[in-house]
Structure formats: structure tokens, C-alpha cells
Amino acid sequence: MRKLYLNICFLLFVLSSCITPYEVRLEYANKKTKGLDLSSSKYVALSDDVLNYPQLNRINLSNNPGLNWKSTTEKLAQINNLTTLFLNDNPGIDLKQVTIGLSKLKTLKHLYLTGNKITVLPDEITMLTSLESIDLSNNQDINIADAIEKLSKLKSLKFINMQKCGLNEVPQAITNIKTLEALNFYGNSLDSLPDISLLPKIQSVDIGGNKFKSIPESVTKIKTRINFYAQSNQIRTIPYEIALMKFGTFNLTNNPLPPAEREKVKKLVNAQYKFY
Prior knowledge:
The protein is of the alpha/beta class. Helix content is about 20%, strand content about 15%. The chain has a domain at about 25-165: Leucine-rich repeat, LRR (right-handed beta-alpha superhelix) (Alpha-Beta Horseshoe), CATH 3.80.10. The protein has six helices and twelve strands.
């Protein structure tokens, strides 16, 4: 069981990593290249070479703090198939300029902005009309109420990742984003959630590493099959309502569950993968 758990953790790490196995450095690229790893390259301007790969759909520009964002996004806007862009660890990023430039791309679905010291998302974020996922992790001073209000205007958004953002609460307005399928709030200071059962397509919720003392009531009202992660909290009791739920994954590891509550998990939780 532990080996299976570690395998799942590794898979999740790979999926959320800034550098995927499909990205190569520029010197190894060829006509079939789909992903370029240009991270930590000390770029000031993006090379015209990025336009030479007809199948290119992913670019990693993380940790290039000297980039000229206007010329960079103008170049990116010429990559017709670009779906995924990593802009992590660029704390001086001109996010307004970036979103204006990227708005010309109707293919962009996944945007990674971790560790950029973002406090407020620009109004222009709403111009990224094709965006399906946004990663805002490790932006400790972000205004979440403002961010959720702006993100709620994106009609295709499925995944919000706000790990380690110093959050004390999640605004009720997040339930207005009816397209959401996954939420990740790992590593914050949360002890409650809004009524996420109002999200009709929700499939995955990660509230691990927070301050929850019980499983949020709204979670127990979710009707869809759910992957639920609440590891490393302060949960001591299990509601009987979870017997009515269907889980893909149910993770309560590293919680102070008494023996009787562990028996409840064993008997009540219907899950493909169960850890407690």
C-alpha cells in the first residue's frame, strides 16, 4: 500500500512540475519538438529560433528575470499551437503586459505563475479566454478575493492551484466558477471552505497541509466522484455522510485520527485509493 501511495505522489509531482519530460533544451530541439525548456537561460529577448518548430506547444521560461516582457509576448503570440506556458520564478514579471500579449493566443490553456510575488492579478487576465488552468502557487501576498473575482470571468477555467499562498480563507465567490473541476489549496492556513458542492463539475480537492479539524461539510455534499486530499491537518472525526460519497482517492494521512475514527474510514469510505 505504501509503495502504491508513493507511486501516486510521484505521478502527481511529475504532472505539476515546472519541467515535464517532454521539454528539451534549445540545442537538442528538432522539427518534431513539442516542448522547449528555456528556464534559467538569462534571456533578455526570446530568440527567433522558437518559431522554427511547427509542433511546438509548450515553453518553459521560468527563472528568466531579465526578460523584456513586451517583446517576449509578441514573439510567443506568433506560436500558433502554444497551449502551455511556464513563467515561474520571475518576480519582476510585467503580468499586465504578458496577459495583453498572450490574449492574441486563442490556444493557450495552461499558465504557470508560481513564485512571482504577485499581489493583484491585472484586469487583463480576463482576456485569456481559452485558459483552463492557472497555477498561482507560492505567491504569498496575493489578494485572493480579487483574484477569484477576476478568474470567475474565465468561462473555460477548470483548475486553480493556490498552494502555499498564505491563505486564511477562500471567498464564497469561487463557487461562481461553475466550470471548475479541480482545486488545490495545499499548504495554507485554512480551517474552512465555502460550499464547494455548488461546483457541479468538481472532481478533485486538495486541502492538505492546512488547519482543518474536520472534513468540511460541503465536501460531504458533493455528488460527483471525487479525489479528496486532506493529509497533514488536525482532523480527528469522520462524518458518517462520507458513506454516501464515491472517492477516486481519499487521503487523510498524518491526521490525529483516533482508532475508532480509523475504523469508520475503513468501513465507510468507498475509494479506489484510500490512505489514513
